[in-house]
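Field log, afternoon session.

UNIT: design team B
ACTIVITY: writing a sequence onto a fixed backbone
BACKBONE:
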């Protein structure tokens, strides 16, 4: 859990200050939450000891009001900070990813990888965008409130405090085990969601063709498979999480029962007065509510971490290097000088040299696999050559990061149509 939270903090980048402020505000919120228990205690003390009821009632009412308004204000500002951080950290990540894609060899990104990146930028990060604020709000507030509450209980009665601390530690241990189990299925679920989004979009884009040629029900196998896989992985996640959820809930319910039993037992043993016994009974119903609410959000943590890991994988791709300050000559000639290039161990281009003068039209003609598309992609620097160099206007394209080239080749059995390849400075 702590590892995932630290990952979110690192991922937040510029929004880290907002998360830190929300953390401080959440601590203040926890004290306001515990404050209401003090009001209840004063009321019980007055009833049991037949004290001055009016004065005690007014004091308790003032404390409860302070607790309510304090929680409202702190919750508002904490939620504001966390929500701002959640949305803007994802927005910044999207911008960083798009900037990164401009600087990596585009040849690394085949259709499958591009679909995966598209899914991460949409489905993956959208899930993070919507989930992170609610997780941070629920978990930080819940765990911090439970921590402050536990300290107050130790001050109130160390025996009750020990029971609360043990139950909380067992609950956290079970939740940690659930996190480790989720680490195995969360990436699979994230991939299934991304794949489902891609297949649905692909199916929608193909709808004009499907309707035009009456292909309804014939070309949707990939979409159906993606839906089935998404259903399967989501059911697998729930199947693995359910035993932990039941067991963790059982731990807190048993702990609440033990607190009620001890409150009555200590009273009859005359080791706890009536006021403290009644207060313990009331606390047994409330003390674990915050941590239980926080724990319910922990299953989503791993899914968020999986999306962040996918972003990190893209950001770790090596960038193309470039030199600034280089100027093209007056002519924009394209020259290949002894260029060789291979896809893996398969050599496609072997020591090729030629020159394309500016303002001319050139056709690459040859059978499929001869390297026509590869030549165009090398000019646009989708890949870097193995040896030799390509220059535009006398400058090696490796020394300029953004060569604005675009072109498209459509191969047919007997006809090749090519849009003119355009390059500017």
């Amino acid at each position: 859990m702590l590892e995932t939270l630290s990952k979110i903090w690192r991922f937040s980048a510029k929004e880290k200050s907002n998360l830190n402020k929300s953390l401080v505000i959440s601590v203040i919120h926890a004290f306001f939450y515990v404050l209401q228990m003090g009001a209840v205690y004063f009321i019980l003390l007055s009833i049991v000891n037949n004290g001055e009821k009016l004065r005690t009632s007014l004091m308790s009412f003032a404390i409860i009001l302070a607790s309510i308004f304090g929680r409202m204000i702190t919750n508002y500002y904490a939620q504001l900070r966390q929500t701002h951080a959640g949305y803007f950290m994802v927005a910044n990540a999207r911008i960083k990813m798009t900037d990164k894609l401009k600087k990596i060899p585009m040849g690394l990104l085949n259709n499958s990888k591009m679909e995966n990146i598209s899914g991460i930028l949409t489905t993956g990060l959208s899930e993070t965008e919507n989930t992170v604020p609610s997780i941070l709000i629920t978990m930080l507030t819940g765990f911090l409130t439970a921590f402050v509450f536990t300290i107050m209980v130790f001050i109130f009665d160390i025996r009750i405090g020990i029971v609360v601390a043990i139950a909380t530690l067992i609950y956290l241990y079970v939740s940690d085990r659930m996190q480790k189990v989720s680490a195995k299925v969360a990436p699979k679920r994230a991939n299934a969601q991304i794949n489902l989004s891609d297949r649905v979009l692909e199916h929608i884009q193909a709808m004009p063709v499907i309707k035009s040629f009456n292909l309804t029900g014939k070309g949707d196998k990939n979409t159906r498979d993606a839906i089935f896989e998404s259903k399967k992985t989501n059911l697998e996640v729930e199947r693995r999480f359910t035993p932990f959820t039941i067991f963790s809930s059982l731990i807190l319910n048993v702990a609440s029962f033990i607190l009620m039993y001890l409150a009555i037992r200590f009273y009859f043993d005359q080791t706890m007065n009536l006021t403290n016994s009644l207060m313990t009974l009331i606390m047994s119903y409330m003390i674990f509510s915050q941590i239980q609410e926080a724990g319910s959000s922990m299953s989503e943590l791993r899914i968020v971490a999986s999306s962040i890991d996918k972003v990190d994988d893209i950001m770790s791709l090596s960038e193309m290097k470039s030199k600034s300050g280089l100027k093209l000559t007056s002519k924009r000639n394209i020259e290949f000088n002894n260029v060789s290039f291979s896809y893996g161990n398969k050599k496609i281009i072997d020591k090729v040299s030629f020159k394309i003068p500016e303002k001319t039209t050139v056709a690459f003609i040859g059978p499929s696999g001869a390297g026509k598309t590869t030549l165009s992609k090398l000019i646009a620097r989708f890949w870097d050559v193995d040896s030799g160099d390509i220059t535009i206007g006398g400058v090696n394209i490796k020394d300029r990061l953004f060569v604005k080239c675009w072109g498209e080749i459509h191969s047919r059995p007997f006809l090749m149509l090519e849009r003119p390849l355009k390059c500017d400075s």
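LOG NOTE: The chain is about 65% helix and 10% strand.
NEXT ACTIVITY: expression trials, pending approval
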